[in-house]
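User: Modeling request: complex.
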Amino acid sequence: MKSIITVFALITIANTSCNTGNNEKSGGNMQGVDTIAPPTSRATTTAKTSINGIVDAYLHLKNALASDNSKDAATAGSEILTAMYNMDTTLMDVSQRKAYMAISDDLKENAEHISTNAGKIEHQREHFGMLSTDLYDLIKAFGADKPLFKDYCPMAFDKKGAIWINEVKEIKNPYFGSEMPKCGEIKEELK
Ligand SMILES: [Cu+2]
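Assistant: Request completed. Predicted assembly structure:
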């Protein structure tokens, strides 16, 4: 278990543009994840843990960036952190817990950077790119209570390309905002 956490901590350092390397604070958040669920609550086929709070905060963030509103994006970043604190990890099944553990440090790190960088929208967008990949993995493991789409922009980050999660079919690009609002396409429908 420890080695898995370490590996993801290292990946987080490698992926995050301005990571200070301080993983102590995010490490504390993992304690609840390690709790062994009692036999009665495991192996349920319907997910008892909802990621809806995180998804809704993410969509707020995505729409703020699409509207070039850096301050609102910072607020949404804080909402993602709040939603993470409110996650009930004890009701997750084995595969959900694994998926959550794999991304939670990274998700938290990116949400923190977005929340503390109001006024630096390009910096927020860099973290949003990484955060979108985390959220995609989370939706794959937990499902969502509404139809969602994986959109893709080939122009983002000097044409490296990047995805985002969308609640509507209409493309409103969060990486470019008003500069290039229609750039991108639906790649996948998430159910
Ligand atoms: Cu940053």
